[in-house]
Design goal:
Distance between the termini: 61 Å
Shape: elongated
Number of domains: 1
Largest sheet: 4 strands, mixed
Low-confidence stretches: 1-20
Radius of gyration: 24 Å
Strand content: 15-25%
Number of helices: 8
Mean pLDDT: 82
Strand order of the largest sheet: 4-3-5-6
Length: 243
């Protein structure tokens, strides 16, 4: 009776683990495994089909294969596609600004430090991952060759999800665009490039500084600016009106 109870409890744990690994209809454990099949610098081509009806165009974008794996997973279900439409611009989207001079460049450098610091975080997480992964793979191979019923193997099964979650978090952060701010020569160029690149999620917003200052000036106490965004990222007035 006791053995049967333990078996049922083990099966319940496996069912719960399987359920947790498929949130939003995505098998996250399989995604983590697929991501690790590529090295960190390997590049893949991602295709965006834009337009409608008989007028369509395919735009190709080069990204690391690990990031493309995320995108393919997000495209696998209707629920995850809706989630991806919100997340992708935040991950890949760059922020254009105009004009570009010394005072504004110094301000932009300070703003971009937040994204640059993610590089150090990713390096640290990958160092931890590189220390954990070989040990995990060794014991996983041993358990696959044996009856898989030892206490160590049972603990390893519980540990698997944690390893995959750590991998997904690390690689998701690694996909975030670090060189976030791009200078443009005019507001017209900012708008046109923003309209084109929003189709591939590589544009997030534009900043147009309104204070007329030169390279020898300092930033004014009250900085004036306007933000330009794609219509797809902005709520209409009906959505923002008082209820």
């Amino acid at each position: 009776m006791n053995s049967s109870g333990e078996s049922a409890e083990s099966q319940t744990d496996q069912d719960r683990s399987a359920s947790n690994s498929s949130i939003f209809g995505i098998d996250w454990n399989a995604l983590a495994s697929n991501i690790l099949a590529y090295n960190t610098t390997e590049m893949c081509t991602q295709a965006y089909v834009v337009g409608s009806g008989y007028v369509k165009e395919t735009i190709l974008v080069n990204r690391t294969c690990r990031c493309v794996q995320f995108d393919q997973a997000f495209n696998s279900t209707s629920i995850s596609q809706q989630l991806a439409s919100l997340i992708r611009p935040l991950i890949y989207g760059q922020i254009y600004y105009y004009p570009s001079n010394i005072p504004y460049e110094n301000l932009i450098k300070q703003m971009n430090q937040t994204f640059e610091s993610l590089d150090d975080l990713v390096k640290l997480l990958r160092q931890i991952q590189s220390a954990i992964q070989p040990t995990y793979q060794t014991f996983s191979t041993i358990c696959n060759l044996t009856s898989n019923s030892s206490t160590l193997c049972e603990q390893l099964n519980e540990y698997t999800s944690s390893v995959y979650i750590f991998t997904l978090v690390t690689e998701f952060i690694a996909c975030v665009e670090k060189n976030r701010f791009i200078a443009k020569s005019s507001e017209t160029e900012l708008v046109e490039d923003g309209q084109n690149n929003s189709l591939t999620n590589t544009f997030l917003a534009g900043i147009v500084f309104l204070n007329d200052i030169s390279n020898n000036d300092t930033l004014p106490k009250h900085l004036q600016y306007k933000i330009r965004m794609s219509l797809d990222y902005v709520d209409n007035t009906f959505s923002t009106q008082d209820r």
